[in-house]
Amino acid sequence: MTFRFSKRSEHNLQGVHPDLMAVVRKALALTTVDFMVTEGVRTKERQQELVKRGASQTMNSLHLPQADGYAHAVDLAAWVGGVRWDWPLYHKIAEAMQLAAAELGIPIEWGGDWTSFKDGPHFQLPRGYRA
Prior knowledge:
- Strands 1, 2, 3, 4 and 5 form a 5-stranded antiparallel β-sheet that branches.
- By secondary structure, the protein is an alpha+beta fold.
- The chain has helices at residues 7-13, 18-30, 44-53, 87-104; strands spanning 35-39, 73-79, 83-84, 109-110, 122-124.
- The protein is 37% helix and 15% strand.
- It has one domain: 2-Layer Sandwich (Muramoyl-pentapeptide Carboxypeptidase, domain 2).
């Protein structure tokens, strides 16, 4: 099955590091679960709002533009007849993201692997990443 990003997903990829963008695009070609990009670059105000709501735990988010000017994180949402938050779907998306990253030789981290704050939709380049 072949999936394509919507205009909204394409817009949400603007300002994301090109290497992470390449992984996301490759993963869409490999995945068995369609997904959309819900967030890439965030403003400090947006990040503050998410911390206040408990949806994020840090103001040091890789969604904020880094020293190279790019966001180093994206949030993805499973799309199965609409947005779905079923945890098993995110494991499948993570498999596609990890396979794409391996094929492209680009390291990524998945928020679903975190121990203290599991974040299934979140993928990022390692902190301090340089191409």
